[in-house]
Amino acid sequence: MSHQGPIILVSSPTPAALTAALSDANLFPVIDAAWSEVAEAVERLQPAAVVVSGDYEERAMAALAGQISAKQPYIPLIVTDPSGPLPRNAISFASLEGQFDRLVPRLRAALRVRTLHATVLRRIAADPELRGSLARTDPLDEATVLLIGRGSGYPALSVALGERLGVVGTLSIEGAARHLNARDLNGIILGEGFSPRVVDAFLTVLSEDARFRNFPILVTVPGVTAGYDLPNLELASGDPLRAVDDALPLIRQHAFEARLGRTLQSIDAGGLLDPRTGLLTVAAFDRDFATAVYHSHDRGSGLSVAKFAFDQNDDRVLMDAARIVSRLMRKMDFGTLQDDGSIIVVFAETDLRNAHAIARRLSSVMRQTSHSARRESRIDPTVTVATLLPNDSARAVLGRLSQDGRRAAS
Predict the structure, then answer these.
(1) From CA 157, how far away is CA 218, in angstroms rounded?
(2) How far apart are CA 260 and CA 288, in angstroms?
(3) CATH class given for the domain over 139-245
(4) Structure confidence by residue, pLDDT tens digits, 183-231
(5) C-alpha dihedral (190, 262, 105, 172), degrees to nearest 10
(6) How far apart are CA 75 and CA 114, in angstroms?
(7) What highest taxon heads this organism's lineage (predicted)?
(8) 7-123 sits in which CATH class?
């Protein structure tokens, strides 16, 4: 499956600066299409991306977005200076005084997601289950963003974001750095409460780190310019809540890219990893745990197990918690998301005391994520820890873990 194709430019009239920017990028041939012929052009040309500029009718835009979203691999749809509400898969781009130089890096970042999608589709061509898993839900349902701020607009931003995706909040740039290094995130919202100098230093550090260069970043601090090597940087010039709406398609795109990355990891691991969580599948966990118990007895080494149980029957909460564990657990450890919604992690060569300390650190990170403004929608696991005793079987350890969990819950 080839990901090559032209860029379809839908505009009336076409801004000269936009044409020049796309031509100078030298990515693919750029083909102009009127609104009356764009549907036929998408079917015939199988474009790599579609760029819309100028006025449009909402009904026509919705039809184009629906047609594009049904295509595989992913086709980026970018709308410059939108004049009205956009469909959920349309990425907005605000030109600065009619300049489109920043459009090219944003388009390149989106095309990298398309290339990754094409690679995954090629490798799972014979696996219909994995193909279906890529489109099972809206990627935004499993996205988590970092909200940084301490100004008056922070509560409103927190509520607006929490209604749609997971939110990790912090009041300082130092706290933000810790979260960025410790967990998987899909975007950054930088609210008021910081000076332009502090914001400049933070954005400069992000632009110099390849891990965060393509992050969706929304800045609501006045006086900040877009002069950074950050293709998905958005500046809120008006209502911050409206700016959040404009940033969601970029966050969705990044969450989809993360989903593709986990799928590739699962493929490389021979299907032993769950592409939703990055943890072992239940069958692989059972096999590895039995082997770990056998070797621990044979070598006389320690082994402990932790169970994280959740009151919420919320798939988004469970997926986020599982990905936190997958990211933060030690390389020697392994875990799985059980069918009952609990997460079990095995700590190799670890006694009970150290296992408690590790489990507390994991649960502490989980509790810093919320999925709405309500306290009951925050991730708040009940943690139970057990250690391997002489003559214990794998089943005995897990059975004791479940019994201790029931006592802890009561």
Answers:
(1) 11
(2) 25
(3) alpha beta
(4) 889 999 998 888 888 999 999 999 999 999 999 999 988 878 878 889 9
(5) 20
(6) 7
(7) Bacteria
(8) alpha beta
